[in-house]
Amino acid sequence: SFSFQAKMSRPVQAQRLEGLDKNIWVEFVKLAATYSKVNLGQGFPDFPAPEFLTEAFVGALSGKNHMLHQYTRAFGHPPLVKVLAQFFGKLLGRDLDPMTNVMVTVGAYQALFCCFQAFVDEGDEVIIIEPFFDCYEPMVKMAGGTPVFVSLRPKAPKDGKLMSSADWQLDPAELASKFSERTKAIVLNSPNNPLGKVFSRGELELIAELCVKHDVLCFSDEVYEWLVYDGKEHIRIASLQGMWDRTVMIGSAGKTFSATGWKVGWTVGPDRLMQHVRTVHQNSVYHCATVAQEAVSQGFQRELSLFGKPDSYFVQLPKMLQQKRDQLVQSLDAVGMKPIIPEGTYFLVADISKFKSDVPDDPKSDEPYDYRFAKWMVKNKGLAAIPLSAFYSEAHKNNYNNYLRFCFAKEDATLKAASDILQKWKQEK
């Protein structure tokens, strides 16, 4: 007789998901929620978004324009794409068409997904610079592509100074060797998460030269574009010779305006590329929250009028975050967790070698050492951070497993609480 309890015997999982089920954030967010007293792990501010932005959201939500509760244009709310075109046109020195050169996405995460799905075919290779934001690799694989990795390699600073993210550099010959006739794209993340490296003009020109030579696309993840310190300059690779026509720039209101939960992102690029990004968007997410887009558009209107002025949020935010960076650098250095001073982002990587005696090696474990250290630290000390090896390919994880990534976009009280934990820990050693 027919059984309603009969189970399916054939595999149900799509083959492209093979091996992609594990996710660092699912595991460590749960650990932080369970054990942490201070969470410097996941990358989001615990201070409020600027008042002008939240007031714009409340006004859009409660105002008389009832159409803000309905669908807007699928590829971006007209006021938002218009001001983004004005803003980035100013930065790039070119006229941008808001309807064809800009598209709004559900955060930068969806923008990345759209790029990989739009341009990567079975057998295509995509160059990823290590350490990399962890979603790049699975997104390449889900599109049928093959990730090819090239590492930033640290060079010890002179005179016993603390290492800077600038000390982590690409080897030009090694980078050039990764390009082949199968290379479809390279993913650039500057400022880089997790290191905080801001790629110099010379480094970007090297990448641009190779892209042009091999006719390769560039997916430029620039979500931390305003978070640069010590007088460093964020250079957009699309502004370099030969790169506009082959680059998709990716941005995030979450990082730009300290409102990560709003999930408003965007892509900027030439129409010949954007038309394919739009095709993926219209057949997946299709539409982003109208009210959030309206509020972000008002935020950008404000910033456009204050561009480069002291009252600009894009000027104030990095000044505030640089102070927080320095506060965390001092706390870590004081206890012997050697920080790598970031030039950008709100992340800081620190060497945990001097604390290894607290968490002995386990030859039976197949986990990288920093995974086990981070889990032990949150469970026993109440301090949450992310293992750096999570930002490396499987083949290279154990080469960089003596580091943790901390987020310093936190209230001063949160950073003080972290410092207290570290000081107490040092005294116990």
Under the CATH scheme, the architecture of the largest domain is 3-Layer(aba) Sandwich
Cα Rg: 22 Å
Total domain modules: 2
Structural class: alpha/beta
CATH level 1 name of the largest domain: Alpha Beta
Distance between the termini: 69 Å
Q: H/E order of the elements?
A: HEHHEHEHEEEHEHEEHEHHHEEHEEEH
Portion in beta strands: 5-15%
What is the approximate shape? globular
Low-confidence stretches: none
Query: What is the average of the pLDDT values?
Result: 95
Provide keyphrases for this structure:
Aspartate Aminotransferase, domain 1, PyrdxlP-dep_Trfase_small, single chain, 15 strands, 2 domains, four-stranded antiparallel β-sheet, PyrdxlP-dep_Trfase, 429 residues, Kynurenine--oxoglutarate transaminase 1, seven-stranded mixed β-sheet, alpha/beta, Aspartate Aminotransferase, domain 2
Characterize this entry briefly.
Homodimer. It is built from 13 helices and 15 strands.
Commentary on this structure:
With 429 residues, the protein is of the alpha/beta class. It folds into 2 domains: 15-49 and 313-428, Alpha-Beta Complex (Aspartate Aminotransferase, domain 1); 51-306, Type I PLP-dependent aspartate aminotransferase-like (Major domain) (Aspartate Aminotransferase, domain 2, 3-Layer(aba) Sandwich), CATH 3.40.640.10. 38% of the residues lie in helices and 14% in strands. The protein has 13 helices and 15 strands. It has helices at residues 24-35, 51-62, 78-92, 107-119, 136-142, 172-177, 201-214, 253-256, 271-282, 290-305, 313-335, 369-380, 412-428, and strands at residues 38-39, 102-105, 125-130, 146-151, 153-154, 168-169, 183-189, 217-221, 247-252, 265-268, 338-340, 347-351, 383-384, 386-387, 403-407. The strands form 4 sheets. A 7-stranded mixed sheet has the order 2-10-9-8-7-3-4, with helices on both faces. It has a 4-stranded antiparallel sheet with strand order 11-12-15-14. Helix 3 (78-92) runs parallel beside helix 10, helix 4 crosses helix 9 (271-282) and helix 11 runs parallel beside helix 13. It is globular and about 60 Å long. The termini are far apart. Keywords: Aminotransferase, Lyase, Pyridoxal phosphate, Transferase. Pathway: Amino-acid degradation; L-kynurenine degradation; kynurenate from L-kynurenine: step 1/2. Pfam families: Aminotran_1_2.
